[in-house]
Amino acid sequence: MKKRMMKRFAVVSLTIITVFTMASCGREESGANLITTEEEKKEVVNLFGPMEKSDPDAENVARNATDRTIIMAEEKLDITVEYKTYTAENYQEKTYDDVTLERARNQMDDLYLLNPDTIQILGEEGELLDLSGLDNAKNLREVAKTANTVDGKLVAIPQEVVAYGLFLNKDLFDQYDLPLPETPEDFLECCRVFQENGIETPVGANRWWLENFVFAQAYADLYNGGNTETEIAALNAGERKYSDYMRPGFEFLEELIEKGYVDAKAAYTYEAIDGERADFLAQKTPIVMAYWGAANTDTAYGDPDFELQVIGFPSKRGPMPVVSMTGYGIGTEAEHLEDAKNLLNEMLSDEALQIYTETNKVISPSQNVEVDCIPALKPLNDKIKENVYVLGSNAGMKMEQWGNTCLLVRELLNGATVDECMAKLDKLQEESLKK
Chain centroid to CA 123: how far? Predict the structure, then answer.
């Protein structure tokens, strides 16, 4: 998750391969007999990411899942992956994205784990290799290819598809005879009924994820109307305005705030999950929003005392999952280019992705690998399988989506009008067209 990628991690010692040599009995003639160890013969791929290689006994499931796929590839290809790690102590006030851009532009590593905004920037700058030629790229779901294609080149590939949805307390919906909301109008009616029955704030929100309401309404037709490429080309050329797409979503959020369905002051300060989780689990708040994995994690929403249901965000086309994803990219001038390509190809094999998917219980980028999801996630999973979704991040759009929209939503929470937010959005689009 994007926020999670930005967190700081502890200092880690990088692996050092020691090379042993033996000279022939002190002779100085040329061609001295040197003995090379097995380790020296192995090819090396340098991977830059936010996490070091995990301890075998570590409980971080996501790290272990990645490590397992990398170890599989190492053994099959007889190569070694050297982890180069981002740490706040080493880079002081630079974010993970700042450091990634710097390292990739200077070709300091071979393989990079990238956030959506850096995928877009580096792809436009020509710093990332076109990965469409990898054997296992042919197995990718369309959503994974669409999100990571820049100027016709597939510049990054994820190990999972991150889908965001509405997390609902179905017991409370049943208590008040409310069907699960499909459209914005349905959602507003549910909030009205909850509030009239004493639930003061029906929607638990934070400062990171309210933009999903905007994306679902803005891009429901764009991604599901059969005209995606043409509409994005018009946006990239300045022939269409993002504000025309996003205004209804911002007006919807404004109505949620004005009617007290969302506590704007609290949402502006809440971190994701940390702020709204307690009230949701205590059944004081019937609706929150989160990413797929939160439904499987006890530290998030994986063990509630009520029936949990996860659906898409309301749109005129019905419940709409919002998808965002990180991805692995390879530098165009990587020192170990072929080995990096072979490594990533193996990490993206159906065998490796099956292990990753089963370990993390996530949606695989491969159309051949299905997740055995819990019942609560089935509605969201069904939509993804039907290729019904909108993208919260799309490297093919010249204006970065996730971060810019998030910041504008925060301004709305802090008292800005919809017109003011749309004016800033138009300015952002103008600036993106100049690049």
Answer: 17
Identify the band that residue 360 occupies on the pLDDT scale cut at 50, 70 and 90.
confident
- Contact predicate 87/11, CB 8 Å: yes
- Check: CB of residue 235 under 8 Å from CB of residue 432: no
CB-based contact 308:167 (threshold 8 Å): yes
Q: What is the mean pLDDT of residues 376-399?
A: 91
First-to-last CA distance in the chain?
27
Q: Once rounded to an integer, what is the mean pLDDT over residues 311-325?
A: 95
Flag the least confident range among 81-95, 160-174, 236-250, 355-369.
Answer: 81-95
User: What DSSP string describes 117-160?
Assistant: HHHHHHHHTT-B---TTSGGGGGB-HHHHHHTEETTEE--B-SS
Asked whether the whole model's pTM tops 0.85, one would answer no
Q: Is the dihedral of CA 240, 242, 246, 248 positive or negative?
A: negative
Question: Residue 70: CB partners within 8 Å, gap ≥ 6?
Answer: 47, 81, 343, 347
Tell me the C-alpha distance between 375 and 398, whole Å. Answer: 38
Greater model confidence, 66 or 9: 66
248 Cβ contact list (under 8 Å, min separation 6): 184, 217, 218
At 152, list the tokens: 């016709």
pLDDT higher than 60, residue 171: yes
Q: In the structure, how many helices (H) and strands (E) does the chain have?
A: 19, 11
Cα distance between residue 413 and residue 102, in whole Å: 33
